[in-house]
Amino acid sequence: MHNLIETSALARQLTAESSPSIWLVCADVAFSDLAPPELDPGAAAWGPTYFGVRVGGSR
Q1: Which pTM was predicted?
Q2: pLDDT tens, 3-55?
Q3: Between β-strands 21-25 and 44-46, what pairing exists: parallel, antiparallel or unpaired?
Q4: Terminal CA-to-CA distance of the chain, rounded, Å?
Q5: Can you tell me the distance from the alpha carbon of 10 to that of 18, in angstroms, rounded to the nearest whole number?
Q6: Which residues, 6+ apart, have CB-to-CB distance to 54 below 8 Å?
Q7: Comparing C-alpha atoms, which of 29, 5, 18, 3 is closest to residue 57?
Q8: What is the SS3 string spanning the chain?
């Protein structure tokens, strides 16, 4: 849970020209097997084996 909170807090502080996503994934699952959803800027998604946030874009 601590890693999820820290990742979300970090992602809110980042800015980028293109809006990147940051994903935390269970070590026993291959990222290619997850099929994570496409996220809109500022959105988050989670499931039993992953948590992802997409940075909201440039300020």
Answers
A1: 0.54
A2: 777 777 776 776 667 777 877 777 777 766 667 788 888 899 888 778 888 87
A3: unpaired
A4: 28
A5: 17
A6: 11, 19, 20, 21, 22, 39, 40, 41, 42, 43, 44
A7: 18
A8: CHHHHHHHHHHCCCCCCCCCEEEEECCCCCHHHHCCCCCCCCCEEECCCEEEEECCCCC
Please state, in angstroms and rounded to a whole number, the distance separating the CA atoms of residues 2 and 31. 21
Q: Give me the amino acid identity at 26.
A: C
Tokens of 2: 């601590």
CB 52 within 8 A of CB 35: no
Cα–Cα distance for residue pair 33/40, rounded to 1 Å: 21
